[in-house]
Amino acid sequence: MKELNDVEVIINNKRYTLCGYESDAYLQMVASYINDKYDLFKQQDSYARLETDIKNTLMQINIADDYFKEKEKVRTLEDELEAKNNELFDIKHEVISLQTKLDELKKELDKEKEDSIEAQKQIVKLETELKEREHKK
Amino acid sequence: MKELNDVEVIINNKRYTLCGYESDAYLQMVASYINDKYDLFKQQDSYARLETDIKNTLMQINIADDYFKEKEKVRTLEDELEAKNNELFDIKHEVISLQTKLDELKKELDKEKEDSIEAQKQIVKLETELKEREHKK
Predict the structure, then answer these.
(1) Which residues does B111 contact at the CB level (< 8 Å), separation at least 6?
(2) Which residue of A51, A60, A110 is the best one to mutate when testing the B interface, meaning the one whose CB has the most B CBs within 10 A?
(3) Architecture of domain A1-48
(4) C-alpha distance from residue B100 to each of A6, B96, B97 (Å)
(5) Fewer beta carbons within 10 angstroms: which end of chain A, N or C?
(6) What is the value of pTM for the model shown?
């Protein structure tokens, strides 16, 4: 079970103590991500002139936009993964089919080789018989 | 090229006009996502007693947390996809190797069948010779 932690973060130059199950490292990463966004916003001259309220909403929309973009990536990757799984399923069937053909061919070859030994024996037998007849003449 | 749009959204009961390249549908989805978070927050009695500043920071952290969770999903899916691609690469090699074996075996079988026809001809020839000798006696 995860432990409840008190974690201190600094966001937009203000100190907050957060109480939750997330690790200190994770919350520092989240804080740093939000602070980077504030830095980018503040680089725009027009940002300073906005009301606090719209500043907050813009920040929320900006983070939510990152979220939805990742969500879209997840969807795309899930589709790709499904396609790969289907491809793998088909190719695994192909492997089984090829192995079955290979086994059948090996059996046919073994049978053919056995028949060949029999035929060679038969030839030797007939040749011997012919030679014996030759001698009996 | 995308067009610049003015889109009106309502977030936390306030109307905002956003100017950007995102579609109206996309921004309404984002607004609805943020409003759902406000609704959840407001269900907690303690939320009302918080200062506006901490309320905003909590919202930012909450959305950023969703973002990082999706980002983690993307990482996991990318790893899975890489593993599948490696598996596919290996299995495609196996298919090629099986097809090569199959071709070799087919050639061997054809050779064996040709030899068998030759052996049968030889047997027939020898048997005929033997019969002829029989008649000449």
Answers:
(1) none
(2) A60
(3) 2-Layer Sandwich (3.30)
(4) 64, 6, 5
(5) N
(6) 0.84
Interface confidence, given as ipTM, is 0.84
> In this complex, do B64 and A105 lie within 8 Å of one another by their Cβ atoms?
no
Instruction: Give me the total of CB pairs closer than 8 Å, taking one residue from chain A and one from chain B.
Output: 161
The string of pLDDT tens digits covering residues A35-62 is: 999 999 999 999 999 999 999 999 999 9
CA–CA distances in Å: residue B119 to residues A120, B108, B122: 7, 16, 5
Q: What is the mean pLDDT of residues A26-43?
A: 97
For every residue of A47-80, DSSP letters joined together read HHTS-HHHHHHHHHHHHHHHHHHHHHHHHHHHHH
Structure tokens at B96: 């090629």
At residue B42 the predicted structure's pLDDT band, cuts being 50, 70 and 90, is very high
CB B7 within 8 A of CB B17: yes
Specify the amino acid at residue B83. A
Judge whether A91 is closer than 8 Å to chain B, CB to CB: yes
Contact residues for A4 (Cβ-Cβ < 8 A; gap 6+): A19, A20, A21
Chain A neighbors of B56, CB-CB under 8 A: 56, 59
B105-130 pLDDT tens trace: 999 999 999 999 999 999 999 999 99
The two three-digit tokens of residue A35, written as one number: 């602070």
Computed on alpha carbons and rounded to an integer, the radius of gyration of chain A in Å comes to 40
